[in-house]
Amino acid sequence: MIATLALAVMAAATVHATPVAVETKTPARLYGTLNPPQLTAINEETGQISPFPAVVHAEGQADELSAIDGQRGVYYIVGYNFTTAKPNLLGLDLDTGATRTSAPLPFAESGFVGVGQTVDVDPESGDVFLSGRLTATGPHHLLRFDPRDGKHSSIVEIGGIDVLGGDSAYDPITKQALLMYGVNHSGVISIDFFAVDVANKTIKKLPETFKNGHNLESLDYDEKTGYIYGTSTKPNSSGGFERYVGYVNPAEWQFREVGSIEHYPMEYAGIAALNPKARELFLIMQEAGKTPSDPFNLLSVNIDTGKIVRAPEFCTLGVPNATMPDCPWTMEYA
Questions:
Q1: Partner of 79 for a Cys bridge, out of 12, 61, 296, 313, CB 3.0 to 4.6 A?
Q2: Strand pairing class (296-302; 313-315)
Q3: Among residues of the chain, what percentage have pLDDT more than 90?
Q4: Does the structure show a pLDDT above 80 at 136?
């Protein structure tokens, strides 16, 4: 999932890696994390936020740097532990919100928590895929992390890119990790899209058409079609821009537009979650004409049509004395 330029200040979690056993699949629902890191259930019909009691303190987190393993009941975020001064992988229990995994990562941090880092889960094995830099100026590495023993191994190295931010998804059918980076090529900003075969440890850069405005602000895998869905922007007839739902088909590496999300131009931090069975993409968006202190809505958008299904008022962004809760820093559906 995506890592954007954001920082949260939070509490020290003990650094350990505990076994993550295969359990009964957690009932499907929408989840998120608050600041400081605290797992919360989200009512997709009403937008009600219901935090679990456990809070992880002294841990930094980045917007949408998360992944979920519904089969084993674990919600992962990549944070920054202020006690150890290292990036950290947290696994939170989907039933209680308690910490099940807390393990230091070998990544070098930039001036902001999580920039250029990604995290995804293999639903078959429960392994976690993580990408980031091992040194401040070195190449990116995609790692496989085993939450059962806390060990990690390198899959591929991605060199020659000055990364501004990252986004990712995992396709369990083709066993490809899909990594999309905002990249600075000697002052020229572009979007680079890589596909990594995690079994054969091979990497390829996808066609240059992905540089031409076809960047998705979030990447979510749809188990029904095998497509990767997200939102993007394009100019509209009035000289402004509009947001729309689009997808990438990994079988042909073509970008397709589904439909515009009408009347909601402002999206919060590229945070999204997909319910593939209901065909709904959940987004935190603000209606046109609103001010920064006004509430954001929890949009449910049909990924086959781009039409809004529901849009209850949901949250605010750090507004003092607000009657609504602060917006989640991440969201996942499982």
A1: 61
A2: antiparallel
A3: 63
A4: yes
- Cβ atoms < 10 Å from Cβ of 55: 16
pTM above 0.85, yes or no: yes
The answer to whether the beta carbons of residues 28 and 275 sit under 8 Å apart is yes
**Rounded Cα gap, residues 201 and 196, in angstroms:** 7
Taking a C-beta distance cutoff of 8 angstroms, is the pair 331, 284 a contact? yes
Q: How far apart are CA 305 and CA 236, in angstroms?
A: 19
Peptide bond into 36 cis (omega under 30): yes
The whole-number pLDDT of residue 27 equals 65
User: Residue 88's pLDDT is what?
Assistant: 93
CB 296 within 8 A of CB 268: yes
In single-letter form, the type of residue at position 184 comes to N
Categorise residue 23: left if φ over 0, alpha if ψ from -120 to 50, beta otherwise: beta
Strands 241-249 and 254-260: antiparallel
Lowest mean pLDDT among 7-21, 98-112, 242-256: 7-21
- How would residue 209 be classed by pLDDT, with cut points 50, 70 and 90? low
CA torsion angle for 209, 156, 333, 93 (degrees, to 10)? -160
Q: Is 202 within 8 Å of 192 (Cβ atoms)?
A: no
Q: What are phi and psi of 210, to 5 degrees?
A: -70, -10
* Alpha-carbon gap, residue 165 to 190, rounded angstroms: 11
Contact 183, 191 (CB under 8 A): yes
Alpha-helical (H) ranges within the chain are: none
What count of other Cβ atoms lies within 10 Å of the Cβ of residue 216? 25
Q: What is the pLDDT of residue 295?
A: 96
State how far the alpha carbon of 258 is from the alpha carbons of 29, 180, 245, 287, in Å.
25, 20, 5, 20
Backbone angles phi, psi at 209, to 5 degrees: -60, -20
Residue 276's nearest CA partner among 204, 223, 199 is 223
Residue with tokens 């001064």: 85
4-55 pLDDT, tens per residue?
A: 433 333 333 333 444 444 444 556 899 999 999 999 999 999 999 999 999 9
